[in-house]
Amino acid sequence: MSLSLGVWIGDNDFINNKQLNEMQKLLSEFPESYFNSIYIGNEVLFRKDKSIDELLSYINDTKLFLKKINKSNIPIGTSEIGSLINHKLIDNCDVIGANIHPFFGGEDVSKSINWTYDFLKYQIEPQLKKVRQKPKIIITEVGWPFKGGSFQKSVANFKSFQYFLNNFICEAYQKDYGWYYFEAFDEPWKKIFYEDSNSWETEWGVFNYDRSMKEKIQFPACN
Questions:
Q1: For residue 63, what pLDDT is reported?
Q2: 0.90 exceeded by pTM
Q3: Which residues are catalytic?
Q4: Most CB atoms closer than 10 Å: which of 93, 156, 163, 220?
Q5: How many helices (DSSP H) and strands (DSSP E) are in the chain?
Q6: What span, in angstroms and rounded, lies between the C-alpha atoms of 76 and 112?
Q7: How many domains, the chain?
Q8: What pLDDT digit, counting tens, does each position of 4-47 carry?
Q9: Domain containing 128 — which CATH number?
């Protein structure tokens, strides 16, 4: 088993440097085979914490560090909201993580699987034609909220959650894209993002925040 090493990049340079130093410590201490990839930042551009050039400077510095310690085979990139992934970002990464949430596409859950892969096909794949190197594209966030309201035709409830869990995972096994399901556990701290009657930000986990299984949720059995 290997892992993807994530490095938090925000608007605080002191914290960013602590994160990067810890990354370097781990990469120096453990074998290269332990690391599937490295993601420098998650949704940095979406939050406007750093410019794309600032983010790329962190990525390129990490590439130099890996070369220095003879571990250059580890792919390096970032994960970002799918709509903000552009050719400049792609051209400087070995791997690109796309956070794609069909819930915010506003369609009924029955259309969510096709919506996800259409987004990749029509929004992200065309960017690959504009770059010198072809990085690996990974779906780094995809899921559906368990409860908390609705967004246009997208409804956050148990039925839709189970539908998406079943159908996305079984379909994903037939595709060439790697993916990470969003998410394992509920995150109560995200209630700070509640707006009006929309309280879904805390409710994306397959498990409750205390690590217990959500009531009635079943893992899919794919053929």
A1: 97
A2: yes
A3: 43, 141
A4: 93
A5: 6, 8
A6: 29
A7: 1
A8: 999 999 999 999 999 999 999 999 999 999 999 999 999 999 99
A9: 3.20.20.80
